[in-house]
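Supplementary Note 2. Why include the ligand at all?

Several targets in our set were suspected to adopt different conformations when bound, so apo predictions alone were not considered sufficient. For every target with a known small-molecule partner we therefore ran a joint prediction. The input for iron/sulfur cluster is given below.
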Amino acid sequence: MPMKTVLSIPGHEHPHPREVSLDEIRLTLGDCRLCPLWETRTNIVFGVGNPYARVVLVGEAPGANEDAQGIPFVGRAGALLDRVLEDCAGLHRSDVYIANVLKCRPPNNRDPKPDEVEVCSPYLREQIRSIWPDIIMTLGNPATHFILRTDLGITRLRGMVHKTGHFAVLPTFHPAAVLRDTHKLAELETDFRLLGQLVRGEVPLPAEQSVLNTQEE
Ligand code: SF4
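The joint prediction is reproduced in token form.
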């Protein structure tokens, strides 16, 4: 199967913010077979939530539960995400929009390959442009690296609000990583408290673009 990299919605090749609906993007995605992950998926996991959200949460790729149900962040990681959203940020899942960089599950939950990210990420880009949130919260290294265009590790980037283009970006751990290492739970909760403060205007959104090194020191 040859790789294609361009997502094109007829008549909307250069859509302005909020010009294209999530339904149009989902329609364009269709039964996508642009990369080999279609062969092993059960369901495409497009995204879920409020199409007018001020906050978009971005994860890496569907896991087994997500693949089975076609919904991002279900199972134990999803329950933890819902809990910190509500308890720490004062938000409900229906207040935000949740999507992954990859829409199909990599076999055995392996890391996304660069060519898979390249071919699938236009869908996420279009989703973000459709919703046009103020804040993007990235969950884990792959999502953070994709959004912030950096190779710096999540432990260096979390706990701070970055800015790229229009968006404030708040990186934190992936909830599944916190389930594997509960020492990270306090930091996850801190980051979600900061998310709530940003949404309520108690902490200002950054004005300056972030300048990040692209390599770990
Ligand atoms: S991962 Fe993305 S590009 Fe690959 S088949 Fe699924 S939807 Fe298409």
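The beta strands are 48-49, 55-59, 97-100, 135-139, 162-164, 167-172. The chain has one domain: 22-200. Comparable summaries for the other entries are listed in the accompanying table.
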